[in-house]
TrEMBL record:
GO terms for molecular function: beta-lactamase activity. Residues 152-261 form the Beta-lactamase class A catalytic domain. InterPro entries: Beta-lactam/transpept-like, Beta-lactam_cat, Beta-lactam_class-A. Keywords: Hydrolase, Signal. GO terms for biological process: beta-lactam antibiotic catabolic process; response to antibiotic. This is Serine hydrolase.
Amino acid sequence: MRTLMTALALSAAAITIQPAFAQETEVQVPETVFQQRSEDVISVLRGEMPAADVFAAGFLAAVPAEQLTALMTQMEAQFGPLAGLEEAKEQSGTSGIIALRFEKALVRGPLTLDSTPDNKVIGLLLNDIQPLNDSVAAITADIEALPGDVSVLYAPLEGGSNPILSVDPDRQMAIGSTFKLYILAALARQVAAGERSWADVVTLDRKSLPSGQMQNWPEGSPVTLHTLATMMISISDNTATDILLHTVGRDAVEAELVQSGHSDPARALPFLSTLETFGLKGSPENLAKYVGAGEDGKRRILADFEDDVVGRPDRISPPRFTEPTAIDTVEWFASGEDLRKLMQRIADLPDPTARKIISVNQAMPKTRREEWQYVGYKGGSEPGVLNLTWLLQDDADKWYILAMSWNNPAAEVTATDFEMLAQRILPLRR
């Protein structure tokens, strides 16, 4: 349930640091300076120059030199050795596009220099990855080499079509906050039936723990269902999620899960709120009781939890989340095929509101987004759990899904590695 974005990966496989002073009035810098700084970036990534000689202090405060080294290790693991600077194309006095050539990919993105005389790097975004001579077989081998369990499905949304890439698509996986798509789908179904309106106003009467922002909003704030749904999907707001689950009804969300064709509802039910999950994972005693109970017993435990906690995070002991915790028992579960079926139902909705909400945070570089007519996204993560799921529509109006899940109960999983794989997978449709 942690926000997927990190300092090194604000979108798929991206480095983004743009301090406020990056927006100052630009000063014309000789092209040779931009070229030289581009070469210097390569030297830092290769360990041939100290990062402090090239990157501004503000940049390194957010992305220390050790993280640059770690990123380089991850990129070379995905794309082979760094051959050098492919291109340094200046666009204005202090900014331009650089391209790094690896054995298996070109990695491009904007580079921004400080306008002071030392012209140090204050912004770097490497998010445009162009695979070179990549293949389904090579990517599949890299997926299967990841520690733990991995499931990937890249396929037309329509059932029965041959997938573009498929690795264990029927395996039940912990999907983290991607479960929130089931709540969105259930809400959209109620709106379509005339039971609710996106403009309906409810009261902020319960809260959860982050990710999100609404846990900091005043209690009793009026908020529309549309706002709650947008916060739930776009920034994975847990408070918005729990209010919607309570408003729509656990029974309605569970019915949506079953009706969507989920292949193992017994594994996924009861459908937990985020605060319930935090409460269970933060209490070894309650966790053991819950895991050992049958479905009826679990529902009684959740009813008691609601009576005791009533949406008050201060009444639970939050988990430390320093390592994977009960990710194979207390989580939200779905296979890649289950997510395909759910996305098919969302794509088929006559009202486009749910699809527009999913499209607020597309988690995809601009150059990749331009290859699609529509991009929608929801992901989820906690220690040992990572899911990336895209709903995509091409210019011929054909729908696709890319659903990627990685679970490891023994260790943390690395978001950047998985996101780089996604950037290699997406071009395979061509």
